[in-house]
Design goal:
Elements lengths: L5 E14 L2 E10 L5 E6 L5 H8 L28 E15 L13 E5 L16
Antiparallel strand pairs: 1-2, 1-4, 2-3, 4-5
Length: 132
């Protein structure tokens, strides 16, 4: 039997590493059934051209971003944290994500960036905790 280990899906960009003019990685989230924006994982490092393209679609976060005050781990088993810039969570992106999730419902491995989906709104993305 063959088992699918990765799926193509959408997520919402909530923060980036690198600068807002040239994103290096995207920190991704999804809204849950109660309307809270939940962190789901991050992407692999973007190519420079992709980072600049995505950066042009991002808006800096205003006051009240759901992740204000959060710190994000640089990787499993490390205490190093990422230096992130919060952005308004309104850009939807298509990614390839591992179907395996941790106990909190986050993707266990980094996601592969495919493309921005500016024609979609966060309301078009499956809810956090739902399959897919």
């Amino acid at each position: 039997m063959k088992y699918k280990v990765r799926e193509t899906t959408e997520a919402v960009v909530g923060a980036v590493t690198g600068s807002t003019t040239a994103a290096r990685t995207l920190l991704l989230g999804r809204y849950d059934a109660t309307g809270h924006f939940q962190y789901t994982g991050r992407t692999t490092t973007l190519l420079q051209t992709d980072g600049r393209t995505v950066a042009g679609l991002l808006t800096p976060a205003g006051a009240g971003h759901p992740w204000t005050g959060w710190s994000f781990s640089a990787g499993w088993g490390t205490k190093e944290t990422l230096n992130v810039t919060l952005v308004r969570p309104d850009l939807v992106v298509e990614i390839g994500a591992d179907v395996a999730r941790d106990r909190a419902g986050r993707w266990r491995h980094v996601a592969s960036w495919y493309r921005a989906r500016p024609g979609l709104s966060p309301g078009n993305v499956v809810l956090f905790g739902s399959p897919g």
